[in-house]
Design brief:
Helices cover 44% and strands 13% of the residues. It is an alpha/beta fold. The protein has 2 domains: 88 residues, no CATH class; 154 residues, Ribonuclease H-like superfamily/Ribonuclease H (Nucleotidyltransferase, domain 5, 2-Layer Sandwich). The radius of gyration is 24 Å and the shape is elongated.
Length: 286
């Protein structure tokens, strides 16, 4: 492993200095470099080609668990630790989330609230039984862009979303209307959100009532009551909105492509046995 490190960093540090720091001989290093690569080393190099390709396809967001799953599906016989080691040696590291945020939940005194019927049961036996919804923020040089999302807990598919410059009722209504158009859910759907003024507004409650929805809301200040949506937003911030966008237009087009082109149709979800939401619904016959 020390020799691998030296070979990877020869352009940055002298062999003499690395040999001294790592306590190996220069002659041993040069002898290792001239040696015929072992079958294991050759296999690792071939695997690294696919690891890099998968990593780039994921927008540099996949860690070793998802890359390992991809490799196994391609026919590789390898352990997760081996994949993690190769990625670490070649400094193939997933992106991290950009941190900076405003307050999105603003409950008004006197608003009508609903009990927490979801009660942290984040699974569903069929599509369109349980939907969760929330709002997040996207940082741009032109100011905040707000994103409202509706997710089906059955497959973790984003079934409705809307973006806007105001965190208002129209924003969550836009996401709700898209979800209705995409899914045509039956009466009795459980709809869960936080207690923000957008979700407690009369106009939004009327739209839920028209479908005879069971209305469920998180307890005040308890993000774990809507953990599935928090998980989606964390993924969005780590894999897509992990920087300050140059404009709101750039942010909106990037997020559209992420949700519709990547997250729903291609991204592997650990909660779905490493299938995408679309593939999970197809495999289950829905």
């Amino acid at each position: 492993m020390k020799y691998h490190f030296m070979a990877a960093h020869e352009q940055e540090f002298s062999v003499k200095r690395m040999s001294k720091v790592l306590r190996v001989s220069r002659s041993g290093y040069y002898a290792w470099k001239e040696r015929e690569p072992s079958k294991r080393a050759q296999a690792n190099e071939a695997m690294l080609v696919d690891i890099r390709a998968i990593f780039e396809k994921s927008r540099k967001t996949y860690g070793s668990p998802r890359i390992h799953t991809y490799l196994r599906r391609k026919g590789y016989i390898c352990g997760r630790n081996r994949v993690a080691r190769l990625m670490q040696e070649r400094q193939i590291v997933a992106k991290r989330a950009h941190k900076r945020h405003p307050t999105t939940t603003q409950q008004r005194p006197g608003d009508r609230i609903a009990p927490n019927l979801l009660n942290r049961e984040f699974s569903a036996g069929l599509p369109n039984q349980k939907w969760v919804s929330d709002i997040t923020y996207i940082d741009t040089t032109e100011g905040w862009l707000y994103l409202a999302v509706v997710m089906d807990l059955y497959s973790r598919m984003v079934v409705g979303w809307a973006m806007g410059e105001q965190m208002d009722v129209e924003l969550v209504e836009g996401a709700w209307q898209m979800a209705l158009l995409n899914r045509q859910p039956p009466a009795g759907l459980l709809h869960h959100s936080d207690r923000g003024s957008q979700y407690t507004s009369e106009t939004y409650r009327e739209q839920l009532a028209a479908l005879e929805c069971q209305v469920s809301m998180s307890r005040t200040g308890n993000c774990y009551d809507n953990a599935a949506m928090e998980s989606f937003f964390a993924t969005l911030k780590a894999e897509c909105a992990n920087r300050v966008f140059s404009s709101k237009l750039e942010a909106s087009s990037t997020i559209f492509e992420f949700i519709e082109g990547w997250y729903n149709r291609q991204r592997l979800h650990s909660t779905l046995d490493y299938l995408s939401p679309v593939d999970f619904e197809l495999s289950s016959g829905h």
